C-alpha cells in the first residue's frame, strides 16, 4: 500500500522537475523522477488539487506544467 508520505515526496519531485524543465508529458515525468506511472499520477493529482499545476491533453498525451509558467 502506498503511504501518503510517499505520494507527497513524489509530488515534491514532480514540482522540482517541472520547475527545472517546464512543460512535460506524464511519460517524461515518469522517467525524470524515476517513479512508476501510478505514483506520478497520484503526485500530479496532489499538485493539481493544491492548484500548483495545470494539465492539458495534446492528442493522446497529457502535459503538465506549473501554474504561472
Protein traits:
alpha+beta; Arc Repressor Mutant, subunit A; 69 residues
The CATH superfamily name is Winged helix-like DNA-binding domain superfamily/Winged helix DNA-binding domain
Oligomer: single chain
SSE order? HEHHEE
Task: Calculate the mean pLDDT score and round it.
Answer: 95
Reported CATH architecture: Orthogonal Bundle
The unreliable regions are none
Shape: globular
Bin the strand percentage.
Answer: 15-25%
- The percent of residues in helical segments reads 55-70%
Number of helices: 3
What would you call the structural class? Answer: alpha+beta
Q: How many E strands?
A: 3
Largest sheet: 3 strands, antiparallel
Structural domain tally = 1
Taking the alpha carbons of the first and last residues, their distance comes to 34 Å
CATH class: Mainly Alpha
- Biggest β-sheet: strands ordered side by side in the sheet: 1-3-2
Q: Round the Cα radius of gyration to an integer and report it.
A: 11 Å
CATH-defined fold name: Arc Repressor Mutant, subunit A
Notes on the structure:
The protein is of the alpha+beta class and 69 residues long. It has one domain: Winged helix-like DNA-binding domain superfamily/Winged helix DNA-binding domain (Arc Repressor Mutant, subunit A, Orthogonal Bundle). It has 3 helices and 3 strands. It has helices at 4-21, 26-33, 37-49; strands spanning 24-25, 53-58, 61-66. Strands 1-3-2 form a 3-stranded antiparallel sheet. Strand 2 and strand 3 form a beta hairpin. The protein starts with a helix and ends with a strand. The mean pLDDT is 95.
Amino acid at each position: 500500500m502506498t503511504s501518503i508520505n510517499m505520494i507527497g515526496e513524489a509530488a515534491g519531485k514532480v514540482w522540482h522537475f517541472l520547475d527545472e524543465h517546464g512543460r512535460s508529458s506524464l511519460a517524461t515525468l515518469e522517467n525524470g523522477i524515476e517513479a512508476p506511472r501510478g505514483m506520478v499520477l497520484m503526485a500530479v493529482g496532489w499538485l493539481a488539487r493544491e492548484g500548483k499545476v495545470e494539465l492539458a491533453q495534446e492528442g493522446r498525451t497529457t502535459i503538465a506544467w506549473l501554474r504561472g509558467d
